[in-house]
Amino acid sequence: MRIAGQRVAIGIAPESELQEARNAQRSQLDALKAAELARSQAAQALELLLGRYPGGEIGKFTPAPDLPALPAAPQAGLPADLLDRRPDLTAAAHQVAAAFDLRQSAQAARLPRISISAAITGIRSDVFLLNQPAARSRG
Predict the structure, then answer these.
(1) Does the CA dihedral 72-78-83-86 come out positive or negative?
(2) Looking at the whole model, is its pTM more than 0.70?
(3) What SS3 state is found at 13?
(4) What is the pLDDT of residue 130?
(5) Cβ contacts of 62 within 8 Å, gap of 6 or more
(6) pLDDT of 105 above 60
(7) Contacts for 88 with CB less than 8 Å, ≥ 6 apart
(8) Quick check: 83 and 89 in contact, CB under 8 A?
(9) How far apart are CA 96 and CA 87, in angstroms?
């Protein structure tokens, strides 16, 4: 809203831009209040299901004092083959390869198709002529 106010003040934007920024801010505040109300109602419903008094206290954030420590970083020099052994990465690689193949087949389907066919309609040979009875009588 400050940027829109500065743009209006120096004259490069109309007053309606500032009004639009104010309206957008008000609508975002309304959406925030609606989200807070929905969170409170969900917390109260959860407390009712758990058999507690529905005060809406269950959904409030309280930091856990005993968080586990992060694992140590992997050592330098580990072989890259270890990544090939992970089933999640292998599955992801297969999905990428399948998507690539589908893309190539879709591109090939857009190309024009050419088909070549051949047919034989008749056979002519001297061997067939010699086997016929009419050809024997002429000789």
Answers:
(1) negative
(2) no
(3) coil
(4) 56
(5) none
(6) yes
(7) none
(8) yes
(9) 14
Residues whose CB falls within 8 Å of the CB of residue 53, separated by 6 or more in sequence, listed in order: 47
Distances from the Cα of 108 to the Cα of 26, 94, 105, 116, angstroms: 52, 21, 5, 18
Instruction: Give per-residue burial for 63-89: e unless 16+ CB within 10 Å, then b.
Output: eeeeeeeeeeeeeeeeeeeeeeeeeee
- Residue 31 class from Cβ within 10 Å (0-12 exposed, 13-18 middle, 19+ buried)? exposed
Find the helix or strand (DSSP H, E) in which 29 lies: helix 15-49
**Across 14-23, 34-43, 56-65, 119-128, least confident range:** 119-128
d(C-alpha 36, C-alpha 59), whole Å: 11
DSSP 132: S
d(Cα 81, Cα 90) in Å, to the nearest integer?
11
Residue 51, Cβ neighbours under 10 Å: how many? Answer: 6
